């Protein structure tokens, strides 16, 4: 079967675009996996060498996940605490949650003695569900690697 030069270029361009799209999806997946691993290491480091102190929620940051009035929201607490050296600190100190934090709620948190703004609340209070974002990020990253890899292999086979 004979094709015109335009048809041959299109026949080559479609699988090539599929291959590039698959590789792009793999790259996004790898970046998400790396982000999750970095967050896990940072959390483990903070837990190992951080100082545990009482604090209080002084504000709540609200982030929309998507567009429109029905987009789900995520919440992060802004906490205030005093270091062992007497320094008062206010910082955003997760975890990100799907339930709303309440201002003036007492919390326990751990902070980096060398960088007190690097802190995290040790579990949300009762009634607030934590968002397992590092785990979710890793799972989405792994899924993107698999889907992108399959797309790249399938379209690369079409090029051969």
From TrEMBL:
- DUF3592 domain ranges (all copies): 53-123
Stretches that traverse the bilayer: 12-34, 138-159
Mind telling me what this protein is named?
Answer: Uncharacterized protein DUF3592
InterPro entries named among the record's database cross-references = DUF3592
- Say which domain of life the source belongs to: Bacteria
**Which UniProt keywords are given for this protein, alphabetically ordered?**
Membrane, Transmembrane, Transmembrane helix
């Amino acid at each position: 079967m004979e094709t015109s030069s335009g048809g041959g270029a299109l026949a080559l361009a479609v699988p090539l675009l599929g291959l590039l799209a698959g590789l792009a999806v793999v790259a996004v997946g790898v970046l998400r996996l790396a982000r999750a691993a970095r967050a896990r290491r940072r959390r483990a480091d903070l837990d190992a060498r951080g100082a545990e102190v009482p604090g209080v929620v002084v504000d709540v940051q609200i982030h929309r996940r998507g567009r429109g009035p029905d987009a789900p929201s995520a919440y992060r607490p802004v906490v205030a605490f005093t270091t062992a050296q007497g320094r008062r600190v206010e910082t955003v100190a997760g975890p990100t949650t799907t339930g709303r934090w309440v201002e003036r709620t007492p919390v326990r948190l751990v902070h980096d003695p060398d960088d007190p703004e690097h802190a995290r609340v040790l579990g949300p209070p009762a009634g607030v569900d934590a968002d397992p974002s590092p785990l979710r990020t890793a799972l989405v990253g792994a899924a993107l690697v698999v889907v992108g890899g399959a797309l790249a292999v399938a379209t690369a086979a079409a090029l051969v």
